[in-house]
Amino acid sequence: MYKSREVKVGNFILGTGHPVRVQSMCNTDTRDAEKTATQICALEEAGCEINRVAVPDMEAAQAIGEIKKRIHSPLVADIHFDYKLALEAIKQGVDKVRINPGNIGAVENTKEVVKAALDHGVALRIGVNAGSVKYLKSVQGRMELTDEKWAEVMVSEALEQANILEQLNFKNVVVSLKSDNFRRTVLANELFAKQSDIPLHIGLTEAGSFLSGTVKSAVALGTLLQKGIGATIRVSLTEDPRLQVRTAYEILKALGLREYGPNLISCPTCGRTQVDVTGTVHALEEKIYNDRALREKATGLKIAVMGCIVNGPGEARDADFGIAGGRGEGLYFEHGQTMFKLPQEQWVTFLLDKIKNWKKD
Ligand code: SF4
After folding, report:
1. Could you tell me the end-to-end alpha-carbon distance of the chain, in angstroms, rounded to an integer?
2. How remote is the CA of residue 277 from the centroid of ligand 1, in Å?
3. Predicted TM-score (pTM) of this structure
4. pLDDT digits (tens, 9 = 90+) for 230-283
5. Is the CB of 312 under 6 A from ligand 1?
6. CATH number at residue 341
């Protein structure tokens, strides 16, 4: 079984034996500290635990101090090619820098970044994306290469970069190996995990739109997480970053690795349905996932909204709070007990009140 070393990012310890942490990335202009911090605060409300910002120039690096003052979670600076931006981001109080030592010029540059990271207790992440692997850039017909070959080349580049840090005795490092291709991503991460104890940040790059990206990410991340691979995850959807956070938690929740909001059971509806199951579920989710206190209150609860008396009572009885629909009303169950009939128009408010007033043991 894969076992990674521990790496510290802000107040979090990452690695085997620690919770898999949820990351996202801002899509604001980092130079606009106020706007970026506002988005990070919204992401924190959604449950995001580690946030990344792009640092394309010195002005963006200098904005990090102001952003850090306004947020509560560890911050990662995403930097390419210019080691001076890394030095400035570290000076400004960033918690982790995503930078590839092989891409920042002379080894002296890496030494400076490593020294600053050690002095400030900052972690580094080496990020290898299939699209920009150095070796593959020069290969003719690279799209015809097997997925195994892609994985091998990605891992070899990651290990090459990691060895530069190893030689400088720098251990507080995370690696990511991402592709938009499910097999390449899984194979690369599995191969790396066989050869190194460096914790992995996992995800598909450019996963796509909400539905297809969610499915692709769930399959890839689920495969890896089931094997104990993945210390942090990011779901890269072309969507509001808050939805990326929720999707990441839903994947972790389905795997039994983290809790996030309720376990909401509902039927797909059919010709027997005479109540609005879909509208009820949408309204409940809308309220719960846009209200941190409510979401936290609902975490761990099983709530069932079922359309009729065929399968409804069984599922509703198994839930903490469950409703089995009838004609315009439903039978309400609480912790296995049959309680009373409830008109459909009261369901959402009633269930939300139940969540608000529920006292955890
Ligand atoms: S619970 Fe009833 S209404 Fe819902 S899908 Fe099953 S049979 Fe149809």
Report:
1. 35
2. 10
3. 0.92
4. 999 999 999 888 999 999 999 999 999 999 999 999 999 999 999 999 999 999
5. yes
6. 3.30.413.10
